[in-house]
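User: Teach me something about this protein's shape.
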Amino acid sequence: EVKIDSQDAIAKVISIKGNQVEVMVGELRIHVKKSRLQKLHIAPSYSKKKVKKSSSTVGSSMIKSTANFSSELDVRGMRTIEALGAVDAFIDKAIISGTQAVNILHGKGNGILRPMIRQHLKGLSYIQSMEDAHEDRGGAGITVINLK
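Assistant: First, the predicted structure itself:
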């Protein structure tokens, strides 16, 4: 069992392919970067019933957290590392909640966050496409991400 960084989710590892790990969170299978996972150590004194009970509690807390999911993330003013962590957690929640498209508001500013976020997400299997928002809705200051 592993914990997904910046989430309350406890997941079970299904497979590992390079830097991507397939995990089960409740009944959902998702792919997460290996660097975003923390190995959990379960004391041998725990019974299987206790582990099952705690995983169902985690499942209900996941449902509550995704019920209030907003499809827009504002990372303006964040440092790159901080923004990338927030984007990863945001995309995880979007996938778990079943959202098809999300917006990341990075602003135009010096133009650093936009290419860094896009490079970070480029090539991930669960990203279908990325593009600038329509000019009336923020243009180059917002990246629209379509999820598979």
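Now, about its shape. The longest strand covers residues 10-17. Residues 44-54 have pLDDT under 50 and may be disordered. If you'd like, I can walk through any region in more detail.
User: That's plenty for now, thanks!
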